């Protein structure tokens, strides 16, 4: 288990990458789950213009997700609905970020594991909703594929 603000998979996060590499190469986990939650304060903060100091840099990653999906989010009238839509898009993007790592791609090539999952947890009713799935071996955008694993 690895936890951080707004369930981000950041490619330069040595803590996350160390946990990922250990889980994949040593423990040989079959499934990796990115689990976010509705009403996430981190996601909510990323949609504002507040200068929050150091955390600006962390939240920038979510702003990038917002930019990509802006049209699908801004169309929603309700603020809570907009936050929750970005929560879902963010989870999807972070699962993609796992697939972009050489750690996951190498395991896909040699072991056909792990399968990647995106889930969202609703603190109001305790229900977990699956958002997306990337089975081992899926061909992602070739731009991100390594060929010498
Ligand atoms: Zn949160």
Describe the structure using short key phrases.
149 residues; alpha+beta; Beta-carbonic Anhydrase, Chain A; three-stranded mixed β-sheet; 46% helix; binds zinc ion
How is the CATH topology named? Beta-carbonic Anhydrase, Chain A
Q: Please give the radius of gyration in angstroms.
A: 16 Å
Number of helices: 6
Number of strands: 3
Structural class: alpha+beta
Order of helices and strands: HEHHHHHEE
Which spans have pLDDT < 50 for at least 5 consecutive residues?
Answer: none
Bin the strand percentage: 15-25%
CATH architecture: 3-Layer(aba) Sandwich
Bound molecules: zinc ion
Approximately how much helix is present in the residues? 40-55%
Summarize the structure.
With about 150 residues, this protein is an alpha+beta fold. It has helices spanning about 15-25, 40-45, 55-70, 70-75, 80-100, 100-110; strands at about 30-35, 115-120, 125-135.
Question: Can you put this structure into words, describing what you see?
Answer:
- By secondary structure, the protein is an alpha+beta fold.
- The chain has a single domain, classed as Beta-carbonic Anhydrase, Chain A, CATH 3.40.1050.10.
- It has helices spanning about 15-25, 40-45, 55-70, 70-75, 80-100, 100-110, and strands at about 30-35, 115-120, 125-135.
- The protein has a three-stranded mixed beta sheet, covered by helices on one side.
- A hairpin with a 4-residue loop joins β2 and β3 (about 125-135).
- The model has no long low-confidence stretch (mean pLDDT about 95).
- It binds zinc ion.
- Zinc ion binds near residues 6 and 37.
